[in-house]
Amino acid sequence: MFVQRAMRQATKAQTILGASPSKYAAKVLSSSRLYSTPALAPLDASKLEINPSKNQKALQENSQLVFGKTFTDNMLTIEWEAGKGWGVPQIKEYGKLQLDPSAVVFHYAFECFEGMKAYKDKDGKTRLFRPDMNMKRFNRSAQRIALPSFEDEELTKLISEFLKVDDRWIPKGRGYSLYLRPTMIGTQESLGVGASNKAMIFVIASPVGPYFPSGFAAVNLLATSEKVRAWPGGTGDAKVGGNYAPCIKPQLDANKEGFQQNLWLFGPDHQVTEVGTMNCFVFWKNEKGEKELVTPELDGSILPGVTRDSILNLTRSWGEFKVSERRFTMSDLVKADKEGRIIEMFGAGTACIVCPIKKIHYDGHDIHVPLDPSDKTSQAGKLTKRINDSIMDIQYGDVEGPKGWSVVV
Amino acid sequence: MFVQRAMRQATKAQTILGASPSKYAAKVLSSSRLYSTPALAPLDASKLEINPSKNQKALQENSQLVFGKTFTDNMLTIEWEAGKGWGVPQIKEYGKLQLDPSAVVFHYAFECFEGMKAYKDKDGKTRLFRPDMNMKRFNRSAQRIALPSFEDEELTKLISEFLKVDDRWIPKGRGYSLYLRPTMIGTQESLGVGASNKAMIFVIASPVGPYFPSGFAAVNLLATSEKVRAWPGGTGDAKVGGNYAPCIKPQLDANKEGFQQNLWLFGPDHQVTEVGTMNCFVFWKNEKGEKELVTPELDGSILPGVTRDSILNLTRSWGEFKVSERRFTMSDLVKADKEGRIIEMFGAGTACIVCPIKKIHYDGHDIHVPLDPSDKTSQAGKLTKRINDSIMDIQYGDVEGPKGWSVVV
């Protein structure tokens, strides 16, 4: 009966948590008026306590930066408890988390995260790129795995404060940035399989250099259908930890055969879904002879990438070719390859912006994707490079993008 | 390029780890003979260091036990490192794990576990039930998410030692046991998405009482097809953390409507797969009029439960009715219900052994599953009760089961 008991407790907590912000506010109001039930504390940036580290670690040279390996002096943490809500946000010295071995994050993968970057512009100001998109997705990911929701804008404010405290860690120079990793974990100290009665948001930050330090290097992909990244009704559209570990074994298998990444397929018709941990884009002449940039539609198993959305927005604003979100299959790609219609292909994500693709191994054959033969220093097609430069221009504040895309903190 | 770099390192480590035990031994032999390459240390129970807690916590009354909430005085831990292998196993005071916030277990769900129990028999000896099955599955789960493999029997030996140290925590009495939770987590302190270069096994233990303290209580299920627990090419057949958190939201939704568990369906034909976190069994008269106990076949998306396997073995040994592992759908169940052919239904797992089902809500209708009307004290069919008693008899050493099922430690 422990499952039922845990469920009853959890449902009680969840009934309020699951509500939308406005319903939540209404509940808080009515409960404080009509009952003595204490209201759940919202995430409140004004409560922030800052006790920064007294030790300033040595910064690394820009050339020495490795993704996600070195972290700044401090971190941001906020704890949550069922029946109480969000606690006092803390900026404090970066250090180990102390968790009970029964904490549910270790057993049932109550964990979700975001990847975003802070950039230094030419005036020395710090900018975030579309942080509202990350915060909304973070909330959706949390709700998919029954972790608590939070007030989007408050977390952005807290991250901005964190960036002020660790400002010296934001590397200067185009291509350099401070990678931010907001993470939420369930910390209930009990093995009952139910909603976690405790949780924690932590944000850590790691200075990073360009994904391609010496010009684009295009990747070879192994089209993979035996292992499947995501499924309708699963969690492919949420940034939850459980989506990642199962992809490593197929990735290692692909690496052994000389491929850098998997091209994840789905279904008996081998729909193209994602590339490694990136969204997938094809630029081709479609069967009607139109130039078209296409990426799989958000059908529930595709991660709604911030870079993906930005590419769609930008290229649509150019109005130079058709831009589509729709399904396409390996047969479509094979046919386009045979008919010489593929122009470019690339993966897209926060880490690289775009990652050019040069070859796909599928069903015993290779599909060769054209690059730009006139470019002797880097392997990427012209559109791929243009998209990369356009997004970078906005991220570093050199060009003003759409409203709210580049936010000075 | 960080992905590629991480992959190269990981592949190097994985090449040896991925090998089968015999190949592994051959490699160790050849490497120590022909090269000066240090051999990777296997998991070795003879290296165990025991530094038990000096504080003996107060035991709880049997009636006060709640699943997975109270833990014993000590825990077993063993750390692993790429290029080195397994370290010194430690039995030490139960206490918090200290992990870097960048540890990959928090981000990419590098985590898998087992659930097993230690029982006190009438002579006061401690028994495990088919520990070899748990250890084999634990290894398979680890390999599915690129965590290191280990020597099965050595971990069983270490668990046996742990049980000796915390012997006073094993509750006496039929239905009572010490629940063991072997867990493996990836502890690499770097956000690169690749195989973890560090890992840890920990085993914690929690005294538990009977799942049904006052006679069986049958459950109501909501048949769920919108959210999907597992899929071909996924991880449904591995006991990895990522399988669990995504099931909580649907479970809470079911609870709100008055159902205790989800009946997980799969595919357009609504195949029956699992019940909550249990395997699913139906006892019916099949379309040919034969009495048949049926459970879904192990097609890659069904967890190969130890209780599941034990039930299949036992009932086949009885030779009284047909026992099948095969697919069946909700249409099959609906038809059988209409024709009055369903005799019993139950979930099966380590926590409960069997959990009787009394109702399934599907497609706007209820399927009512018969129980035993002659039994006024508990809600369960005759076969369900007989299976429960037969397995318990073996677990507590009252009846000698098949060779290797009940192991005195």
Chain-wise SSE layout:
Two copies of one chain form a homodimer.
Chain A (H helix, E strand, L loop, with lengths): L1 H16 L3 H14 L14 E3 L22 E8 L3 E2 L3 E4 L3 E3 L5 H4 L2 E3 L2 E5 L5 E4 L1 H14 L7 H14 L11 E10 L11 E11 L10 E6 L23 H9 L4 E6 L4 E5 L2 E8 L5 E5 L10 H13 L3 E4 L4 H9 L3 E8 L3 E10 L2 E4 L13 H14 L10 E3 L1
Parallel strand pairs in A: 1-4, 11-12, 11-18, 15-16
Antiparallel strand pairs in A: 2-3, 2-4, 2-10, 6-9, 7-8, 7-9, 8-20, 9-10, 12-13, 13-14, 14-15, 14-17, 17-18, 18-19
User: Order of SSEs of chain A, N→C?
Assistant: HHEEEEEHEEEHHEEEHEEEEHEHEEEHE
What multimeric state do the chains show?
homodimer
Distance between the termini of chain A: 50 Å
Helical residue percent band of chain A: 25-40%
Structural class of chain A: alpha+beta
Count the beta strands of chain A: 20
Strand content of chain A: 25-35%
Low-confidence spans of chain A: pLDDT under 50, at least 5 residues? 1-35
Shape of chain A: globular
Largest interface, with counts of residues having CB < 8 Å to the other chain, equals: A-B, 84 and 83 residues
Mean pLDDT across residues of chain A? 91
Profile the largest sheet of chain A: 10 strands, mixed
CA radius of gyration of chain A is 23 Å
With helices defined by DSSP (H or I, 4 residues minimum), what is the helix count of chain A? 9
GO cellular component, one term (chains A, B): mitochondrion
EC number (chains A, B): 2.6.1.42
Catalytic activity (chains A, B): L-valine + 2-oxoglutarate = 3-methyl-2-oxobutanoate + L-glutamate; L-leucine + 2-oxoglutarate = 4-methyl-2-oxopentanoate + L-glutamate; L-isoleucine + 2-oxoglutarate = (S)-3-methyl-2-oxopentanoate + L-glutamate
Family (chains A, B): Belongs to the class-IV pyridoxal-phosphate-dependent aminotransferase family.
